Each structure stands twice: as C-alpha cells, then as structure tokens.
Amino acid sequence: MNETADKLGVETTLTFNHTDVFVKCPYNKSVPYSFCVFDADEKLECIEEYLGQEIDFDYYMTSGIIE
After folding, report:
1. Does residue 30 lie within any of the structural domains?
2. What is the mean pLDDT of residues 19-44?
C-alpha cells in the first residue's frame, strides 16, 4: 500500500497530534513516520486509482459490460 500510495500521490493525513487541524499531503514513503495510518477512504482511493490504471473502466462501462 505504501509503495502504491507514494507512486500515485495519494493524499494522507500528517501526524500532528498537538492540533485539531487535519493536514493532508501526498504520501511520501521516505518519511512514513510523518503520516498517520491510511484510513478507509485513503485505502479506497489508492485501490481505485491503481485499478483505474490497470483496467479501462470507461470502455467496459460504455460497452455495457459493467454498469
């Protein structure tokens, strides 16, 4: 997940425990300690972006194979 998120630039929450503000920036595998654990939305975004690169969903939707 870390490698894919880094390659795709998935925005992840930084670890600022001393503030009420959530700051998001593209994940960087070089400094994993600066980021919180991926939440469900960030995991889903990463999976969707990866699959979108591997599968041409527009073609399958246009041709009626998937809805």
Report:
1. yes
2. 85
